[in-house]
Design brief:
This protein is α+β, with helices and mostly antiparallel strands. Helix content is 25%, strand content 35%. It has helices at residues 13-21, 30-54, 150-153, and strands spanning 61-71, 74-82, 89-96, 102-110, 124-132, 139-146. It starts with 12 loop residues before the first helix and ends with a helix.
Length: 155
């Protein structure tokens, strides 16, 4: 003779929830939280220092000196470039109209120079560039300067 099935005993509520959803999550201790914040803050400061100095490590800076427009199709831009004397540099120069639209653009090659007896050892060179424009310009300036890569110098 068989006995009737016995109903299963229900598990306690805490145990069944822990089995279904997992144990309660542990919180970080205050010391671990402070340590984590300190590490994140140090990493952020290090990143900002790297970003702020990486631009100056390129070794090329420029300064706009002035511009003049001789007629409605020509603008002359005067600027200075500072770099290591042995480095060739390229600079993009642009002319703008009264609405700040670019009306002329030219990429200028600045060859390397020898370190001479100047105060800065030949690092700074002055340039005057003539930019052809499609309409009258009211401003001229340097957009950017860079050191061309070795592959581009061989071309």
């Amino acid at each position: 003779m068989t006995s009737p099935d016995q109903p299963a005993q229900p598990a306690p509520a805490d145990t069944s929830l822990a089995n279904r959803y997992g144990a309660k999550k542990r919180r970080f201790t205050p010391k671990a939280t402070r340590t984590g914040i300190g590490i994140a803050l140090a990493a952020g400061i290090g990143f900002l220092a790297w970003v702020s100095t990486s631009n100056s490590l390129s070794g090329v800076t420029y300064k706009d000196i002035g511009y003049s427009t001789t007629d409605s199709t020509v603008a002359e831009v005067d600027f200075q470039v500072t770099r290591e004397p042995g480095n060739a540099v390229k600079c993009a120069v642009k002319a703008l109209d009264s609405k700040f639209a670019v009306v002329g653009w030219k990429v200028v090659d600045i060859p390397p120079s020898a370190a001479d007896g100047t105060a800065d050892g030949g690092r700074t060179v002055a340039q005057r560039v003539t930019v052809l424009t499609e309409s009258e310009s009211v401003s001229g300036l340097v957009d950017s300067c860079w050191i061309p890569s070795q592959a581009q110098q061989g071309m």
